[in-house]
Amino acid sequence: MEKVDIVVMGCGPAGIQAAIHASKRCSVYVFGDPEKSNLWNAHIDNYLSVEYPVLGRDLLLNGISMAKDIGVKFFYEDIMSIIPENGGFRVKSENMEVSCYAVILASGIKHEKLNVPGEKEFLGKGVSYCADCDCMFFKGKKVLIVGGGSAAARAADMMLNFASQLYLAYPSFSVSDSVIEQLKEKGCNVIGAQVTEIKGSNKVEEVLLSDGQRLDVDGVFIELGSRGIYEIAMELGIMLDDKQMKFVQTDTEQKTNIKGIYAAGDVTGFPFQLAKAVGQGCIAGIMAADYVKSNFT
User: Contact at 8 Å (CB) between 18 and 286?
Assistant: First the structure.
């Protein structure tokens, strides 16, 4: 079994930034697939010093290259389990086992999918899972928000400031009637139907609904909620947020309630933004390295 000081779970912006900072004083392995990061298909135009939209994948690949140059090792496979052992942890991935002193959880979140024709094909071409991230690209355009919960209602309320025409569609709504009425009063077209297909040529042009309607839209934001790293957190006894029990609780040093385990980025909850992920990754990397140096070397 290989030994390393710190294991980072996740190859997105939080994980890569954590690895860059931690590797200045410790050996670091990163597990994960950058293409699974929500940043991979995103277009960034709200990050400090970025003056024009850049592809998220370019930022990730540049970050990986930078980290490799300073000694970080990357393994493009998922972590299956993290087991406390001898004051540290035994990490099992798809093809190997690693012993480490500290773990940084930065695996992001997996957005719930609609699983309808066109969803995958038009990802990044009109289909998005983050209204906060991509709202500026749809200013003055026709937009559909898909979802019936608070995430969808919040996205719809925000997109009213950008879209020329806005729809909110889902078979049933779990938010209060007053919230739906407020959205209607502001100009949102609320439809009690499910999306059955997303169509277009090189980008989204039309959406088909279960009630037979066909909506001409430029963008589709799928806001169905998200899944976190619930299973691994439960196995380790990591505390999750009180309200949704989906996000990892941390203190200002990105520490969880389990000694030696840190968390950064989307796994810690809203807002799901690049700037937050990078900032928390920086802190987690520094604090994890401090912990290892203070306790094991």
Answer: no
- The CA-based angle 190-195-196, given to 5 degrees, is 155
Q: May I ask the CATH architecture of the domain 2-109+228-295?
A: 3-Layer(bba) Sandwich (3.50)
* Partners of residue 92 on adjacent β-strands: 81, 97
List per-residue pLDDT tens for the chain, 297 residues long: 899 999 999 999 999 999 999 999 999 999 999 998 989 988 888 889 888 888 999 999 999 999 999 999 999 998 989 999 999 999 998 889 999 999 999 999 887 889 999 999 999 899 998 888 788 899 999 999 999 988 899 899 999 999 999 999 999 998 889 999 999 999 999 999 999 999 999 999 999 999 999 999 999 999 987 655 777 888 899 999 887 778 999 999 999 999 999 999 999 998 999 999 999 999 999 999 999 999 997
84, two tokens: 């406390």
Helix (H, G, I), strand (E, B) or coil at 270: coil
Which strand (E) or helix (H) includes residue 283? helix 274-295
- Determine whether domain 112-222 maps to CATH 3.40.50.300: no
178 vs 86: CA distance, rounded Å = 54
Which residue ranges does the chain devote to CATH 3.50.50.60? 2-109+228-295, 112-222
Question: Taking the chain, what is the end-to-end CA distance rounded to the nearest angstrom?
Answer: 20
> How many C-beta neighbours within 10 Å does residue 227 have?
11
Partners of 227 in beta bridges: 110
Q: How many Cβ atoms are within 10 Å of 109's Cβ, its own excluded?
A: 21
